[in-house]
Structure formats: structure tokens, C-alpha cells
Automatic annotation (TrEMBL), chain A:
SMART domains: AAA. This is ATP-binding cassette domain-containing protein. GO terms for molecular function: ATP binding. Belongs to the ABC transporter superfamily. Keywords: ATP-binding, Nucleotide-binding, Transport. It comes from Streptomyces niphimycinicus.
Automatic annotation (TrEMBL), chain B:
Its main location: membrane. It is found in: Cell membrane. The lineage of its organism: Bacteria, Bacillati, Actinomycetota, Actinomycetes, Kitasatosporales. InterPro entries: BP-dependent_transpt_permease, MetI-like. Keywords: Membrane, Transmembrane, Transmembrane helix, Transport. This is ABC transporter permease. Residues 88-277 form the ABC transmembrane type-1 domain.
Amino acid sequence: MAEQPTSAPLAPGPRTGPADAISVRDVTRDYRRPRTSLRHPSPPVHALRGVSFAVPAGQRFGIVGESGCGKSTLLRILAGLDRPTSGSVAIDGRDITGLRERQLRFVRERLQLVFQDPMSSLDPRMRVGDIVAEPLVAQGHGNRRERVAELLEAVGLRADAADRYPHQFSGGQRQRISIARALAPRPKIIVADEPVSALDVSVRAQVLNLIADLVDELNLTLVFVSHDLSVVRHVCDRVAVMHNGQIVETGATEQVYEDPRHSYTRRLISAVPTLGKALSGVSAADLNREYQP
Amino acid sequence: MSAPNTEAAVASAAPEGRRRRRPVPGSLLVGGLIVVAVLGMALLSFVWTPHDPTLVNPAARLETPSSEYWFGTDKFGRDVFSQIMMGSRTTLFVGFVAVGVAALVGVVLGIVAGMAPGWFGELLMRGNDLILAFPALLLTIMFSAVYGAGTLVAMIAIGIASIPHFARLIRGGTLQVMRTEYVIAARAAGRGPFAIALRHVLPNVSGLVIVQASVGFAIAVLAEAALSFLGFGTPPPTPSWGRMLQESQEMLSIAPRLAVFPGIAIAVAVLGFNLLGDGLRDRFDPKMEDRR
């Protein structure tokens, strides 16, 4: 839990600098399962094994990987909602590892989350206006009514949405509410955890474009997590590929897409369904066999 | 930890996209009607009873039911129907106070235990199990022995004995709510644990509280009757269904109806609150949606 100054000798990993909105250095996170034997403690689960990367301010950074690869754990650690077992995370150049909740206030102001599940990410017992205003209340901002109206308009919802409950909205609209809430405290960094995975294909593009537009307009840094390569390609400048709690490949999105180096990345890319492949009768099992490392 | 069927009643991640108007379950309707009837009877007893329920009338002892005395009279010539009306007051009063005590303490305990990290929550729940393992009736008798028999003592003792049921249920609900993304979002927004408990957890476990309260009410009614029957509850001359049963005991061979009427009153009231609880559970449980 020792606080590492950011100028400490660099661990093996990418360059980090003061301009980085997020820098993650050699982060590991182990979980302990409940004991199943009296004699031996359960072996720990390694959710993250030495993850390092840096996101310069203003970049759109994608993280891809299958479910269970540690993406969500990484996000929670980035947001200061969980602690790494070892390693350090800095937001805007300030180390957040081992800080107490009260000291994390600057993270709460600067970094906000958008979640995957539009059903469970909004409190069913709260009005939309209160949901969007929650970060404002928590951080003691004034003029909340006006700000909420402004935000709802920015995400393309009518102002009277504020008086309704989440269940009265569709999945896409709920994701818009979620985005409005995330933008409320004027954060500099948005971390989106599979924000369109639960949506119908028809509204997916709309929500993606909304995120991309807002990120541009407000000059935000975006960390975008998805299992879907095509979605990441649509939004992100750089991408990191995660597998088994490790980053196996990082690079500019196009480069990773056109010229994947790691066998896992190749497998992921070839797994993207295309009409041609489907017509020629390629099955998932074929893909797996073809790219076994 | 807590029973899975009750945990699911949390309104958190109700999977229904849009809340449709569901048909009112029959148990809710019948239970509600019975509860309203008992409530009405208790309220009515404040302004009107056919006879003075405590008036001793030696001229009219052990009357059979008639248009004058609807349920007959007891060995002192008191009107049984009037006594049952008055007794419903005691019953409801006991229920409200007992459930109030249990819900207040139990909900707070449950939420704290559900939100507290690791060992503290566990400690609370183990303490909870300790009370749970103690027979409720024994606890109330113990209380009566120490503080003297009386309605208030009985109510509080019944309330304390019901705390663990609330605490356990609410802890399960709280654990479930704490895992939802809206709570994570609230934490990321900078909300403290107190605000999360009040604004997110409490509203979302309120369905559980209502269900458990109506079931707890039925238990309290039964417990009060049992205590009064044993002589630890409501002291004479205040009418109470439990004590009416006890007094009817010695007349059982001559006038068995004296036991039947209060017995029916207790059974119907308990049934009513249980049905109400069941019906409310059906209403609040999102899983019930699939069964239709």
C-alpha cells in the first residue's frame, strides 16, 4: 500500500508521463475464493497479472477481450472502486493506489463510468432527474435542475424525461440516461464498460455515435471496454487486447486490426462474423482449431 | 445466507422491460379484505359495541347465542361478541408495536450487516443467529417474568424475538442491491455509504420489508394469544382473544362455544395477515412474472 511517487523507476511497461490521463503500472489483482478444504486454503484467482498501459489525455482507448479476461476488474481499479493487489494506478498523474475514500474525491470528480446493463445501472426506484443529478448532489454542485435539463438535451432526451422512471424507457434511452449521469459532474475521463453490448443492433450505432460525439465535443479521454472488435474499431484510436488477465497486444486500432501480432488477437479478429464466412460454412470450432497457439 | 425465494423479491434488477399491470393475486384480495375487516372491527369498538364488554351481568350467565347476545355470554354474563370486538384492538395494537420494533431494528441491522465489510457483517449475523436459535415464546415468558406480565412487555418481547427474521431477510436484499451497477455508479459519483443506504438500498428492499411485516404481524397475533392464554399477556379486565380462550377452558364441557368464537377470531386474523403477506410477495417478486 506504499504510495509510489510517479517518477519512480519505470517498471517494464509503456512510457508514462505527466500528460497521461491514466497510467497503470504492473497492476495485479488476486481474488480469494472461499475455502473448500480445512487443510488447504483455496488457490487465489489471478484476475489481473501485471497489466501496464497509459492513456494520454484526449485519447480514445479501447480494451478488448472475452468475458472473464479481467476487463471489469481493471475498470473497477481504474475508478478507485477496488484495490490492486500490487502495482499502481495514477489518474491525471496522481497515484490513487491505497488512498482512502475521502482522498479519492478528485477521482470521483474527474472520472465517471458508463455501464453495460441498461436495466441494472439505473435505480428503478428513482426518477431520471434524480439519477442524473446524483453525482451533482454527491459532489455538492448547485443549479442542478438546469444542469440536468441541459444534460438530457445533450444526450437527445426530452426534458420531461426527468420526471419519469427508468422502466419507462427503452434500452437505448436508458444508456443515454446513463451517459447523462456520467457527464453530469463535468468529468475529464469517461470509462465505458461494454456500453452497447446489451443493446439492439439498430440502436447500437446511435449510442456509439453519441458517445464519440460527446467525447469529441467535451474533449474527454475515453476508456472503452468491449468484447466486440468492430465496436472498438468504430470508436477508438488505440486498442489493448486482454487475455487471461494480461494485455497481450497494444497498438493503433487500425494496425492491430490489419496486422495482428498475437495469436489470440488473430483469433479474435477472425471470429468477427462476416457474411462471406457464414455462407462458406465456417463454424466457431473451425476458428478455434485454425488459430490454436 | 437467506432463502433464495425471498432474496429475489428485491425490486433491484427487475427483468421486466416495462412494468405491466399485473392482475391482483387472489390471496392479496382475500387477505386484504380480512385485514380491513379486523381493522374496521377494532375501530368500530371505540364508538360502538352491542354491550359493555366488561359489564358483569349475573342474570345473563352462559346465554346461548341470540339476537340479544350474538355470540352468547360467558360465565360472568359478559357479551362475547363485544369482547371479541374489544379484543381485536389489543391484537392489532400488539401487532403494530411488535412489528414496528422488529422492523425498525431488523432493517437497520440487516442493512448495516449487508453493507459492512467482511468480518463485522458476519459478526452481526452470527449474533443474529444466536437470537434466532432462542425460542421466541421462551424469550417472551422470560421477559414477562422479569418485567411483569403486561401488554407492552409482551409486545416488545415479541418484537425482539422477530428481529432476526427481518435482519436476515434484509441483509440478503442489501447484498443483492449492493452488487448492482447503480450502486457502483453511486459510489463512483462520490456517494457515501450512508447516502447509498438511504437512497438506494432502503427503497429497493422496501418490498421485502412490507412482505415480512405482514407475515410478522400474523406471528405477533398468535404469540400474543398464546401469551395471554398462559397468563403472561394482557391482564384482566382488558379483553384479549388469548385470555378469552383461557377463561373458556373450565367451561369447555358446558359451553364449548366460548372457546370456538375467540379461536375462530384468532385463526381468521392470522390467516388474513398470512394471505396478505403471500399476496404482497407475489406482487413484489419479479420471478412470479414467468410463472403465469
